Amino acid sequence: MQKPPNFKYLLILIFVGLIDGSCESNTKKNTNTEPGEESPEAYTLVWADEFDGTGKPKSANWAYETGFIRNNEAQYYTNDPKNVRIEDGFLIIEAHKEKVINEAFVSEETDNWIKNKEFGEYSSASLTTKGINEWKYGKVSVRAKLPKGTGTWPAIWMLGENWKEVGWPKCGEIDIMEHVGYQNDSIFGTVHTTSFNHIKGTEVGKSVFIENPYDDFHEYSIEWTPERIDFILDGSVYHHFINLHKTNAEWPFDQPFHLKLNLAIGGSWGGQKGIDDSIFPQQMIIDYARVYQQE
Q: Which residue has the higher pLDDT, 41 or 99?
């Protein structure tokens, strides 16, 4: 038989919770366990970057994408400390409105958008674990504070190990978190495969409301097994992708995947409402990136 609530005690709990929440935006917070310990979900931490210290991200953990890369995005990715650095225990990915020489420029006459611009008009950074660290199944969690403003397109996502061999979307893509600045109250979790992708308009994804993504840190996660991928915001599952056990065209997720962290500007999705040049510079601030697996 349920006992009646102690309202005085409830009021105290609410008050303490409000005080604790008021500190959220300015502090590092480990919402899981410390490195080397098991998470509450019986996973074991197998890889993490807590971004302690200052300077460049660890080369044992991260490589960089440089240049114009994908999606007709407006930014030119660099590995310049202005665009990517560790500062006060956080990874900073920072976008600027500035002219950047395009090292891949060939001619304005070519139809190749990567090679027909002599300069980029924005700079930013994209980090990847490709060729360094890749994982098959598990829980992947990144705690971050997002950039704001029309034209921003931050993402936390994964691509299959065989990306260079078979190409996209056959390799598979898991978008742990995407956000576009013109839709400031939502984040998106999505998968792309040969059968399900945005080129065909068949991608499988879902958006969820998010409160204060620019002022507060939130934890963006997936739990990935041979049977399903769950998309999680701050510990709550908001989307499932189920293995239909058909072909690789529907489920290419039985192989290792690498992790990417990037802040794009403009492009095929982020630029649909234009780019507000008054917002720059903008930062994506990452507290940690962690990968757990079951024993």
A: 99
Preceding peptide of 169 cis, ω within 30°: yes
94, 134, 173, 250: the catalytic one is 173
Provide the pLDDT confidence category of residue 3 given band limits of 50, 70 and 90.
Answer: very low
Domains of the chain: 39-293 (2.60.120.200)
Of residues 233 and 13, more confidence is placed in 233
| pLDDT above 80 (res 238) | yes
The whole-number pLDDT of residue 181 equals 98
160-205 pLDDT, tens per residue? 999 999 999 999 999 999 999 999 999 999 999 999 999 999 999 9
Of the listed 178, 203, 223, 250, which one is catalytic? 178
| CA 269 to chain centroid | 15
Catalytic residue status for 87 = no
Active site residue 227: no
> Which H, E and C letters describe the chain, residue by residue?
CCCCCCHHHHHHHHHHHHHHHHCHHHCCCCCCCCCCCECCCCCEEEEEECCCCCECCCCCCCEEECECCCCCECEEECCCCCCEEEECCEEEEEEEEEEEECCCCCCCCCCCCCCCCCEEEEEECEEECCCCCCECCEEEEEEEECCCCCCEEEEEEEEECCHHHHCCCCCCEEEEEECCCCCCCEEEEEEECCCCCCCCCCCEEEEEECCCCCCCCEEEEEEECCCEEEEEECCEEEEEEECCCCCCCCCCCCCCEEEEEEEEEEHHHHCCCCCCHHHCCEEEEEEEEEEEECC
Query: 226: cis peptide before it, omega within 30°?
Result: no
Per-residue confidence band for 41, with pLDDT thresholds at 50, 70 and 90: low
Cα 295 to the chain's mean position, in Å?
Answer: 26
